[in-house]
Amino acid sequence: MPLVAMDLRSTHDTGVARYGRSLLAAVAAPARAAGFRLLVVVRDGAQAATHDLLVGEECADTHEIVGIPGDTGFLRDSAVLRSLLTRRRVDLYHSTHYVVDLACPVPYVLTVHDLLRWRFPRLTASDEDFVKTYGKQCLHDLWSEVLDPDRSPSAQAAPAELDPSCGVFARGFAMLTRRLVRSASHVVTVSEATAREMAELVPPPGGSTVVPGAVDTDVFRPRGRGEIDAARTAHRLVGPYVLYVGLAHRGKRLPWLIRELVGARPALPPDTRFVVVGGHAERDEETRRAVETLDAADFVRFAGRVDDDDLAALYTGATACLSASVGEGSHLPSQEALACGCEVVAPDLPALRETTAGHAHLYSPGRAGMPGSLVTGLLAGTVPTRARGYAPGSWHDSAVRLIACWESILGGRNGVLPPSPLS
Predict the structure, then answer these.
(1) Residue of 216, 220, 200 lying closest to 112 (CA atoms)
(2) Count of domains in the chain?
(3) In a domain, 80, yes or no
(4) What is the full DSSP assignment across 334-397?
(5) What is the arithmetic mean of pLDDT over 275-302?
């Protein structure tokens, strides 16, 4: 039986992490049926929670979970993992994250969620912000491994648009992506939109497969009045509210979205609130500054991290789930919100057109006045609803696609892949 190491480690516990966990839960049983054994790689301490995903699929006796200690930096560099892959004679290493150890000793599959940092380098983290999170040594390592022309052959292939003023992290990440894509046996993308961008910007020599993000409809479904009221009470919500779910890095443009909603506030019912879920935004300096400058502490409600049942209830009771990103690869919150019957107001981006399938209220990215106008119209009933009838993709279909990908790489299907679930 081929042994596939499936690495679920992620930098933040948000969309990328959910993608990995959901994919594992869906792929465990069909992978066993297809003759694969999985060596599931997690951060040390996450073994028990991950084990529950396998027990639910009755696969704990076939697949194994291993925790990797001390991996807290941005670059993947683990002698422990490299030794494990070699010692266990792993046939294929699959990372659901977008970074792989540059010295990975076995063939690997890289997951590219989006090319936001490549396309908008000035909206990625500054070197100063990067150092605050990961430390000076990690920035130095990124320079040494990827950008230093005396040490790294890839340094000479830096994209022309990434001039030195973009900073070490922005240039380093773009070059790290190119280097990993070129060395990968295969690349997985989370949407057709990302696959098209890759074909244009960083074509993968080993080919690519779309394994789309999806929705667990056992969890993300319309909830009843009791659950909605309980969520309202827990988060002190008296009147209507709109949601934001996820990270708050520059490319998400959350401060701009806050300004837009505060500008529209006179037209909203006085007890309307903007609820921000995820536990990341309240730690973001620019977001906090926007709330303080706009005197919006009573309007913006930071809900922190919530469990999935609470999130599904919040989706169901919300007027809309909002986004203001300059780029996305899939955007799971929009799909989950629609599956709960919640309207979605989001930028008109290729990935969002693809994954919301005509059921979202899309506006020209960055167009002032549009998010507030759409929210106002939804509350007043002058903007028609669109969420009804949305049919999200299933993680089972994504798992089938992933197994076919592995079989193709390892020679099991003579390179023939089934059609994409999104096509």
Answers:
(1) 200
(2) 2
(3) yes
(4) HHHHHHTT-EEEEE--HHHHHHHTT-SEEE-TT-TTHHHHHHHHHHHT-S----TT-----HHH
(5) 94
Closest CA to 329 of 151, 200, 210, 237: 210
Cβ distance 75 to 138 under 8 Å? yes
Percent of the chain with pLDDT over 70: 91
The pLDDT value given to residue 72:
64
- In a shared domain, residues 43 and 143: yes
The reply to whether 420 falls in a domain is no
Cα–Cα dist 247/181, whole Å: 25
Identify the band that residue 328 occupies on the pLDDT scale cut at 50, 70 and 90.
very high
Distance CA 90, CA 88 (A): 6
Same domain, 210 and 258: no
pTM: 0.91
CATH number at residue 325: 3.40.50.2000
The stretches of 166-243 forming alpha helices (DSSP H) are 168-183, 192-201, 225-234
Both 321 and 286 in one domain: the answer is: yes
Residue 279's domain spans which residues?
Answer: 225-380
Residue at 142 is within a domain = yes
